[in-house]
Amino acid sequence: MTDTVQAEVIMSFVVSEELAFRIPVELDFASADPYAVRLTFDLPGDAPVTWAFGRELLLDGLSRPSGEGDVRIEPASPEHLSDVHISLQVGAERALFRVSAAPLVAFLDRTDRLVPLGKEEVCDTLEAVLDRILTEAPAG
């Protein structure tokens, strides 16, 4: 059985400096994949969209600009660490979200209690699968 941590947070989808929409976003973490965090956006009229990225990236992005490529996370303001920007990019399209850091910290704290950072061990299940394959493989 996989242990999970889930939380719903409200993020602002930033269209421009003057326009933002508040949307619910589901955060997911599973002990079976302890390096990843998933964000699922379930917008009315659209199929849910899930982004997966490193749990450590989310943690680092709370206090300093982090990430390269498709996912970037950073404090919304260098002076105040109360809000975080999450930027998601596909090709030339980019979406910017603003979220309070507090629910992210609470979520990360819960994931750390389930699987402490630095103590991730996905190799146990991988080792068991490899052992089974190797013992079942025909000699030859």
UniProtKB/TrEMBL annotation:
Main localization, broad class: other
Pfam families hit by this protein: SsgA
Superkingdom classification of source: Bacteria
Entry's localization field: Cell septum
Coiled-coil segments on the chain, per record: none
GO cellular component, one term: cell septum
One GO-annotated biological process of the protein: sporulation resulting in formation of a cellular spore
Family matches, as InterPro entries: SsgB (IPR006776), SsgB_sf (IPR038658)
Keywords carried by this UniProt record: Cell cycle, Cell division, Septation, Sporulation
Record-stated family: Belongs to the SsgA family.
Name the UniProt record assigns to this protein: SsgA family sporulation/cell division regulator
Organism, as annotated: Streptomyces platensis
